[in-house]
């Protein structure tokens, strides 16, 4: 099994899988999703988010692992009275002035507030580019809810279990993510290639079979983008897909409310296992628990799992500026194959190609977390 991924796999006209296997016979066609997006984030946002959340990640990761080790869950925390500053905002001015109000009241760390405002500005600019006459209302509505839930998680941080099932009530986090990202996609010029494969996958799920999508990964919004492109034709897949998620999306304060609306198997990336050496053993134990959860899910059948086999996001070639899929980690692919084989249920593995990097591009260079970056923020209390 090769760990390389030839470029034709990534092309919109591809009809033959460059990387595919199945425990039962399956079509060689590659499900392909091509999205035309209203550019939502500038490089400035990427730099600010990277600086802010690399600084918070070590503390958040440590606390997440400790919570998992001790068996603490979100529902076991004392109730915190939630501020209604953002949910009651009726204009952009009220929404943004609420940031200062919450910072002054000590309920919102200044660096988190700065990140929230930067996201607001870029989200507003991107939605306005769509030409939607209702853009002002759309931005205010979506950002009011986003601000409110970012603050809520600062007040009372949510802790993810190894297997997290999407929260649909009393607040529907799934639809929150759908409604937030929807205005950023130009559906007139976006498409799903080889759509027939998704109907084929639905039939296999109805028969009790498991399906794994081995995919490239380009943006933090990939799970929502996939659901948005399939919500009309294949709503069952859109709502029930399980995503193998790295720790960033369950510790990053601005990612967490969106992650809460997805079915997730939470793992720690091998690439960053030793970023904080003293946490490496706890991360390995957490990954073992997640692996057991996945095995149990697959034994039940009728599961569809998405995994980014490269362990990270695609980045452009530094010389040509062309985007290409990061190389798959062959051990990750082999792990999924063995899990399916041992589940006792028929299973199928399909390659999935995504081309949607414009919506939330990663930093051009990978950045390793260093302890010295943490010192300005170690006073923040997220317990």
TrEMBL record:
Residue intervals of the Phospholipid/glycerol acyltransferase domain: 211-357
SMART domains noted in UniProt: PlsC
Localization annotation: Plastid, Chloroplast stroma
UniProt record, GO biological process: CDP-diacylglycerol biosynthetic process; phosphatidylglycerol biosynthetic process
UniProt KW keywords: Acyltransferase, Chloroplast, Lipid biosynthesis, Lipid metabolism, Phospholipid biosynthesis, Phospholipid metabolism, Plastid, Transferase, Transit peptide
Primary residence: plastid
Top-level taxon in the UniProt lineage: Eukaryota
Catalyzed chemical reaction(s): sn-glycerol 3-phosphate + an acyl-CoA = a 1-acyl-sn-glycero-3-phosphate + CoA
Pathway: Lipid metabolism; Phospholipid metabolism; CDP-diacylglycerol biosynthesis; CDP-diacylglycerol from sn-glycerol 3-phosphate: step 1/3
InterPro entries per UniProt: G3P_O-acylTrfase_chlp (IPR016222), G3P_O-acylTrfase_N (IPR023083), GPAT_N_sf (IPR038114), Plipid/glycerol_acylTrfase (IPR002123)
Renumbered ranges of motif HXXXXD motif: 217-222
Enzyme class: transferase
GO cellular component, one term: chloroplast stroma
A GO term, aspect molecular function: glycerol-3-phosphate O-acyltransferase activity
Stored Gene3D superfamilies: Glycerol-3-phosphate (1)-acyltransferase, Glycerol-3-phosphate acyltransferase, alpha helical bundle, N-terminal
PANTHER family given in the database record: GLYCEROL-3-PHOSPHATE ACYLTRANSFERASE, CHLOROPLASTIC
Family: Belongs to the GPAT/DAPAT family.
The protein, known as: Glycerol-3-phosphate acyltransferase, chloroplastic
Organism of provenance: Gossypium mustelinum
């Amino acid at each position: 099994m090769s760990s390389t991924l030839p470029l034709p796999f990534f092309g919109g006209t591809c009809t033959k899988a460059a990387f595919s296997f199945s425990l039962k016979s399956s079509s060689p066609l590659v499900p392909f999703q091509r999205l035309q997006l209203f550019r939502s984030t500038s490089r400035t946002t990427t730099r600010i988010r990277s600086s802010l959340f690399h600084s918070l990640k070590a503390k958040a990761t440590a606390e997440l692992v400790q919570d998992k080790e001790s068996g603490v869950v979100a529902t076991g925390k004392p109730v915190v009275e939630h501020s209604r500053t953002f949910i009651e905002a009726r204009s952009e001015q009220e929404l943004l002035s609420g940031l200062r109000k919450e910072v002054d009241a000590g309920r919102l760390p200044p660096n988190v507030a700065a990140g929230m405002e930067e996201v607001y500005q870029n989200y507003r600019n991107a939605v306005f580019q769509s030409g939607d006459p209702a853009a002002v209302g759309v931005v205010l509505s979506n950002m009011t809810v986003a601000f409110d839930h970012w603050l809520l998680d600062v007040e009372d941080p949510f802790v993810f279990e190894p297997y997290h099932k999407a929260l649909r009530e009393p607040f529907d986090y799934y639809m929150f993510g759908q409604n937030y990202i929807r205005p950023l996609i130009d559906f007139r010029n976006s498409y799903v290639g080889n759509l027939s494969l998704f109907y084929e996958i639905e039939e296999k799920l109805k028969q009790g079979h498991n399906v794994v999508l081995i995919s490239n990964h380009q943006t933090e919004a990939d799970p929502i983008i996939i659901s948005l492109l399939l919500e009309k034709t294949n709503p069952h897949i859109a709502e029930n897909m399980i995503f193998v998620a790295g720790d960033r999306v369950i510790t990053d304060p601005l990612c967490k409310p969106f992650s809460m609306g997805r079915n997730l198997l939470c793992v720690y990336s091998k690439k960053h296992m030793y970023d904080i050496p003293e946490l490496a053993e706890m991360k390995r134990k957490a990954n073992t628990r997640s692996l057991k959860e996945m095995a149990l899910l697959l034994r039940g059948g009728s599961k569809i799992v998405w995994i980014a086999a490269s362990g990270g996001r695609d980045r452009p070639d530094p010389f040509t500026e062309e985007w290409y899929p990061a190389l798959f980690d062959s051990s990750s692919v082999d792990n999924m194959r063995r899990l399916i084989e041992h589940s006792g249920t028929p299973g199928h593995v399909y390659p999935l190609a995504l081309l949607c990097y414009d919506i939330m591009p990663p930093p051009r260079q990978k950045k390793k977390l260093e302890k010295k970056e943490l010192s300005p923020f170690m006073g923040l209390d997220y317990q």
